[in-house]
Design goal:
Largest sheet: 7 strands, mixed
Structural class: alpha/beta
Radius of gyration: 21 Å
Number of strands: 14
Strand order of the largest sheet: 2-8-7-6-5-3-4
Number of domains: 2
Strand content: 5-15%
Shape: globular
CATH superfamily of the largest domain: Type I PLP-dependent aspartate aminotransferase-like (Major domain)
């Protein structure tokens, strides 16, 4: 039977590549998974106070449908967090979602029409392009400079009358690049000049290494900023699926979407109530584990980047946030970056993600997640080094 044409545009390279690894595992091979950014699968467990809050909520019979927009106490806690980061926000401009992905889906459904265009930094996190295409729009990638800053001339050259929104993923997935306040202000100015929404994803906002993080709210003023954030990465709640949408309360241009996006929240009924209770504990409870998480990640980042740059045939920039590296493949032995990733998996059991899965500007790269412990990462780097050296010798 026929399925819709639009479903053919849905891709997610990060998980699609896992199918190949599972086949090898079935035959008894050991796989080192460096493809999915799920800290809880490694040695970053969900903090006890968050888990206890969930249990307390369930035992306290908070097991019914919540308000569609999210429970008031959580929305108030979100307002406090995002206000501290600089965003002008009131409770009525917060909507709780089942993860950022649902929030992104709602935003895309609200602003994307057939043939409309959404600009996003290349490389980008795949669901951004998938949701835009799903609703009939066209994702338009803009370049970053060698220093990881937005290429303003490239952006301006790609804006057409069909441009509806400009996306910012900060810190960036897959590169780990972090935009500073100057970068954010430049992007806001461009978007404002062309009457575009600014969709900003700050899910890694506290996983920063070598610089201060500037939230979009610090420079937003009255710009039409729609902020996406959640609890998966910083608060180590990946499988719990809790995120949120925030609207810049100082922007009158958001009035239409502000009034209409709750319709989508009501259609899907509600976000998970016990998890919302736990999310309050995440925001209001102990925060010391975040510094410990960042410290561990920084050591692992440094190890991986050092080892990668010691390999003749690989070049890797030092990322300033999140938990990804995005090395460049300098040799032309392989047909393309996906061929490289599949060959690496076949010969070493190391699963990474091909850079082209993150868009046109990801080509020639591959993404490594540096969440495993140093021993596992060291083993992976040994295998990768041997793989590159042997590949060189065979050609």
């Amino acid at each position: 039977m026929k399925v819709s044409d639009r479903i053919s545009n849905v891709e997610y390279a990060i998980r699609d590549i896992t199918v190949h690894a599972r086949q090898y595992e079935k035959s008894g091979r050991k796989i080192i998974y460096l493809n999915i950014g799920d800290p809880v699968k490694y040695d970053f467990p969900t903090p006890d106070h968050i888990k206890k809050a969930l249990v307390h909520a369930v035992l306290g019979n908070f097991n019914y449908y919540a308000d569609s927009e999210g429970i008031l106490e959580l929305r108030q806690a979100i307002v406090k967090k995002e206000s501290q980061k600089g965003l002008s926000i009131i409770v009525d401009d917060v909507l709780v979602t089942n993860g950022i992905s649902e929030g992104l889906d709602m935003v895309a459904a609200s602003i994307v029409e057939p043939n409309s265009e959404v600009l996003m930094p290349g490389p980008y996190y795949p669901p951004y392009a998938s949701y835009v295409k799903f609703y009939g729009g066209k994702p338009i990638e803009f370049k970053l400079t060698e220093d990881g800053e937005p290429d303003l001339d490239d952006i301006k050259s790609k804006i057409t009358p069909q441009a509806r929104a400009l996306c910012i993923i900060n810190p960036n997935n897959p590169t780990g690049e972090v935009f500073n306040s100057k970068n954010l202000k430049q992007l806001i100015d461009i978007a404002a000049e062309h009457d575009m929404y600014i969709i900003c994803d700050e899910i890694y906002d506290k996983l920063i290494f070598d610089q201060e993080f500037t939230g979009i709210g610090k420079v937003a003023k009255d710009a039409p900023v729609i902020l996406l954030n959640g609890f998966s990465k910083v608060y180590l709640m990946t499988g719990w699926r809790c995120g949120y949408i925030c609207m810049n309360s100082d922007c009158q241009k958001l009035e239409n979407i502000r009034n209409n996006i709750p319709k989508l929240a009501r259609v899907r009924i509600a976000a998970n109530l016990p998890v919302q209770k736990a999310a309050i504990a995440a925001l209001e409870g102990p925060q010391d584990y975040i510094a410990e998480t960042v410290s561990k990640l920084k050591k692992r980042r440094d190890l991986v980047v050092k080892r990668l740059n010691e390999i003749d045939g690989i070049s890797c920039k030092l990322p300033n946030g999140a938990f990804y590296t995005f090395p460049k493949i300098l040799r032309s032995i392989w047909k393309d970056d996906k061929d490289f990733v599949l060959d690496l998996l076949n010969k070493t059991g190391i699963l990474t993600v091909h850079g082209s899965g993150f868009g046109e500007y990801g080509k020639g790269h591959f993404r490594i997640v540096y969440l495993p412990n140093e021993q596992v990462l060291g083993e992976a780097m040994d295998k990768l080094t041997h793989f590159i050296n042997n590949s060189e010798n065979q050609n």
